[in-house]
Design brief:
This protein is an alpha+beta fold. The chain has 3 domains: 110 residues, Winged helix-like DNA-binding domain superfamily/Winged helix DNA-binding domain (Arc Repressor Mutant, subunit A, Orthogonal Bundle); 94 residues, SH3 type barrels, CATH 2.30.30; 76 residues, Alpha-Beta Plaits (2-Layer Sandwich). Helices cover 39% and strands 27% of the residues. It is built from 9 helices and 12 strands. A 5-stranded antiparallel beta sheet has the order 7-6-5-4-8, with helices on one face. A 4-stranded antiparallel beta sheet has the order 10-11-9-12, with helices on one face. Helix 1 packs across helix 3 and helix 4 runs antiparallel to helix 5. 17% of the residues are buried.
Length: 305
């Protein structure tokens, strides 16, 4: 009975994502103390169950955890969940409810992998762009999910237009920018396309077969492969810490003296100087000296204009 309840708690957490200990205790007619004991045993078994204390706390499973993959398509998952829900409403019974929750948790975990425009609203465009960026995201996500070829009008950083037929395989989000990793028919190789630089995207009507793409095959330096990547040391004032953490990542910033210091590798292009200046002096360059001098020159030019 104990392990049955533990399994049910796990599947329920996968389905609901976060529950309180009291909710779980009332559902399975056990004590709150037993709930925490079962959670501890699930952790020992390798299930990453988190306990968050406080008013808005609860018990949850890490989003990266998934049950072993089965052989259902998303449509089959949806159909099975709907059928079990209908059966449960007509017949009832704990077994029917448990089976529905197990399938529903699996369906949700699979569905959220690339769901960028359904459960998550994405708008990376400029203010007032009439949701054009979100529409491109929707088209790219659908192309990835359904293996549909796209014809894209792409504008490079140099302003050159080109029409490409691509086979989108993966959507990638890095440094607040969305990319689509796709096989390009023109170049006959995989390329990374910045979605913000796609002017138009439309389905060609062709279906492609996905190639075997491993995580390590995807180059995450993107357009900066051609740029000069340099190690940079920055000092950060406490007032700008939150913004700097979102830019550089929390793991790359550590306290030092009265402030904070970040040691990171960044693309040394024109955007880097502008980004540093946008902090209004709250972020200063400690190294390299050449970058610090360029920031000073641009700052003096702004002050004298």
């Amino acid at each position: 009975m104990k392990y049955q309840i533990m399994l049910k708690i796990m599947t329920q957490l996968l389905s609901k994502r976060k529950l309180t200990a009291r909710e779980i205790a009332e559902r399975y007619d056990i004590s709150v103390r037993s709930v925490y004991r079962y959670v501890e045993e699930l952790n020992v078994c390798g299930v990453p169950v988190d306990v968050e204390r406080g008013r808005y706390g609860g018990i949850s499973i890490a989003d990266t955890f998934r049950l072993p993959s089965g052989y259902f398509t998303r449509g089959e998952y949806a159909a099975a969940v709907n059928a079990l829900a209908l059966f449960e409403s007509q017949v009832g019974g704990e077994d029917a409810a448990s089976a529905r929750e197990k399938l529903e948790s699996k369906f949700k975990s699979e569905r959220k992998e690339l769901s960028v425009c359904g459960n998550i609203i994405v708008d990376g465009g400029i203010w007032g762009d009439a949701d054009k960026f979100s529409e491109k995201m929707r088209v790219c996500e659908q192309a990835v999910n359904e293996c549909r070829c796209l014809a894209v009008d792409y504008v490079s950083r140099e302003g050159e237009h080109s029409v490409r037929i691509i086979e989108p395989h993966v959507l990638v989000f890095k440094q607040n920018v969305w990319y689509v990793y796709a096989f390009c028919h023109t170049k006959q190789e995989f390329r990374t396309f910045k979605i913000g630089r796609i002017k138009k995207a439309s389905f060609t009507g062709e279906i492609f077969t996905k190639r075997d793409v491993k995580r390590e095959d995807i180059p995450l330096d993107f357009s900066y492969a051609r740029e000069k990547l340099v190690p940079v040391t920055l000092s950060i004032e406490k007032a700008s810490l939150a913004d700097a953490e979102e830019w550089l990542g929390i793991d790359n910033i550590e306290p030092r003296g009265d402030g904070f210091v970040a040691e990171v590798t960044l693309p040394d292009d024109g955007e880097l100087v502008r980004k540093i200046l946008s902090y209004g002096g709250a972020v200063k360059v400690l190294a390299p000296q050449s970058l610090a001098e360029r920031v000073k020159r641009v700052a003096k030019k702004i002050a004298s204009s």
